[in-house]
Amino acid sequence: MDRNAPVGVFDSGVGGLTVAREIMRQMPDEKIIYFGDTARLPYGSKSQDTVLRYSRQIIRFLLTKEVKAIVIACNTASAYALETVERELDIPIIGVIRAGARTAVNSTRNGKIGVIGTEGTISSGIYTDVMQQMRPDIDVTVKSCPLFVPLVEEGLLHDSVTDEIASRYLSVLKGRFIDTLVLGCTHYPLLRSTLGRIMGDDVTLVNPAYETALELKALLSGKNLTCDNGKTGNEEKYQFYVSDLAEKFTAFATSILPNEVKETRKIHVEEY
Amino acid sequence: MDRNAPVGVFDSGVGGLTVAREIMRQMPDEKIIYFGDTARLPYGSKSQDTVLRYSRQIIRFLLTKEVKAIVIACNTASAYALETVERELDIPIIGVIRAGARTAVNSTRNGKIGVIGTEGTISSGIYTDVMQQMRPDIDVTVKSCPLFVPLVEEGLLHDSVTDEIASRYLSVLKGRFIDTLVLGCTHYPLLRSTLGRIMGDDVTLVNPAYETALELKALLSGKNLTCDNGKTGNEEKYQFYVSDLAEKFTAFATSILPNEVKETRKIHVEEY
User: Fold this and answer.
1) What is the pLDDT along chain A (272 residues), one digit of tens a residue?
2) How close is the nearest chain A Cα to the Cα of B55, in Å?
3) In sequence order, which residues have a C-beta less than 8 Å from that of residue B105 and are 6 or more positions away?
4) pLDDT tens across B220-239, in order?
5) Mind telling me how many Å the CA of B129 is from chain A's nearest CA?
6) How far is B260 from chain A (nearest CA, A)?
7) Residue A22 half-sphere exposure, CB side, CA atoms within 13 Å?
8) DSSP for B157-175, written as a single string
């Protein structure tokens, strides 16, 4: 395995860029191949069977780029596909859920944790399972928030309608007196100020993107796979692929990443 | 061509069932093969290229069922794919847009028509093009309403949040003094009472599903393709196929169609 090979990162769309951004910050030498499945998003409302099939196609594409490790930067795909695909792969693969769960378990004081996410992530029950494996007495309350992604994509980050919807979704969590809330969908950190105001200062918000980048760093280090040569020759250090709407993706990625994204390539991922 | 063959109807999901329902009402003898692309919905935010590719796959699937005609019961796919695929096919194919546009042009008194739909349908400009071909002096105001589909799917049909979002989306149309509003997405008729209240009694709401069934009836009649034998032997008269979440589809379809849907079959449409 070439320690200077790129890391593959994938998501159903743009949300996983928050994870890619953390990897760029914490491991500035690492090369990244990012894939966003913009033709088939959202994953959150699809079945396990379908999300697993899509994830396998994306992984086969990333393997053609000779990645040394893969990060599933999508909560739904992590919930539905990680356990299966990690048995099928020769290279290391991690998802966003375990790192977020571990941080929540370590940060709660009263043992009551809330998790919000898409219907797929929530109905999988995976956050509860993982956190209770780490600490069996943990009390987990989950709530799916299907309107958050469309509200973010409509740009209503600071808006009375978003406040109202968030208040409704979060009321069950407030009623359970949680002290830690996992933002179990990569779009949700963009609603952080609204969610923080509604939950109050005593509730810690956990963003799995940051913790996932830390986990990747430890994983690469442990396997002697940390890049020791950040040079890329003629290739772009960060390469972006999508299944649809490449230009829209480029604009969005440029707005949230530290450097301009020059190009996004569109591929037919279902052929992999 | 067998006049007793089924009619193929497809949509990105469940919305096209409103069109299937009208066909069942107006042509009770006709057999229907319905396909809902639930694994890849929504179409409204995808590119023309992708929607065309998906539509061709679905059409190839429907042709394996020996359909005698096809109805594209999805505004986005009608906008992006109809003109191309009708040149590629030997059987008649119609979409929901032309029938809705004709009704709007015939019903307006002041010549000012509004159209609401997904981003794909609206940015294609097709409703404006089609209506101005029919009557060049028509004044068309369009507005995309990306949150309506998620609000409907969240069940908020009669809700203060939906009222607020609808008021914002429709304000530009009210400001243009339209007297006719085309509900250019198959989900929108489910918001009819909210939309009607905001627009006021003087504005006619046009639902293309009804008009599309009328157009199909005339088309089949003109080509001597009207079914003259409603018997189906051992086969179900109405057959439903989806690309994901068959059971959820069955429940929804049963709730809006006149008869219980016994079974929905899941297929891998990308293999066609």
Assistant:
1) 899 999 999 999 999 999 999 999 999 999 999 999 999 998 988 999 999 999 999 999 999 999 999 999 999 999 999 999 999 999 999 999 999 999 999 999 999 999 999 988 998 899 999 999 999 999 999 999 999 999 988 889 899 999 999 999 999 999 999 999 999 999 898 899 999 999 999 999 999 999 999 999 999 999 999 999 877 777 889 999 999 999 989 998 998 898 899 999 999 999 99
2) 13
3) B113, B131, B134, B135, B138
4) 999 999 999 877 777 889 99
5) 24
6) 23
7) 21
8) SS-HHHHHHHHHHHHHHHH
Please report the DSSP string for chain B in residue order. Answer: --TTSPEEEEESSSTTHHHHHHHHHH-TT--EEEEE-TTT---TTS-HHHHHHHHHHHHHHHHHTT-SEEEE--HHHHHHHHHHHHHH-SS-EEESHHHHHHHHHHH-SSSEEEEEE-HHHHHHTHHHHHHHHH-TT-EEEEEE-TTHHHHHHTT-SS-HHHHHHHHHHHHHHHHTT-SEEEE-STTGGGGHHHHHHHH-TTSEEE-HHHHHHHHHHHHHHHTT---S----TTS-SEEEEESS-HHHHHHHHHHHSSS----EEE--GGG-
* pLDDT tens track for A179-204: 999 999 998 988 999 999 999 999 99
Cβ pair B8, B31 in contact under 8 A: no
Whether B161 and A165 lie within 8 Å, measured CB to CB? yes
B243 and A154 in contact by Cβ < 8 A?
no
The catalytic site residues of B sit at: 74, 185
Determine whether the interchain pair A150/B153 forms a contact, defined as Cβ–Cβ distance below 8 Å.
Answer: no
Residue of A nearest to B270 (CA): A270
pTM of the predicted model, to two decimals? 0.86
* Residue in chain B lying closest to A37 (CA): B40
- Cross-chain residue pair A147–B150, CB shorter than 8 Å: yes
Nearest CB neighbour to A50, from listed B150, B165, B244: B244
The H helix count followed by the E strand count for chain A is 11, 10
| Out of A46, A147, A161, closest to residue B154 by CB | A147
Contact A68/A2 with Cβ under 8 angstroms? yes
Closest partner residue to B39 (CB to CB) among A50, A147, A151 is A50
pLDDT given for residue A204 in this prediction: 97
A244 and B50 within 8 Å at the Cβ level: the answer is yes
Q: Among A209, A98, A192, which Cα is nearest to A148's?
A: A192
Query: Is the link from the previous residue into A6 a cis peptide, with omega within 30 of 0?
Result: no
Instruction: Return d(Cα A118, Cα B172) in angstroms, integer.
Output: 32
User: Measured between beta carbons, which residues in chain B are less than 8 angstroms from residue A150?
Assistant: 146-147, 150
In the structure encoding, which two tokens stand for residue A91, read together? 């290279």
Please state the ipTM of this predicted complex: 0.83
Q: Considering only alpha carbons, which residue of chain B is nearest residue A119? A: B154
Q: How does DSSP assign B188-201, residue by residue?
A: GGGGHHHHHHHH-T
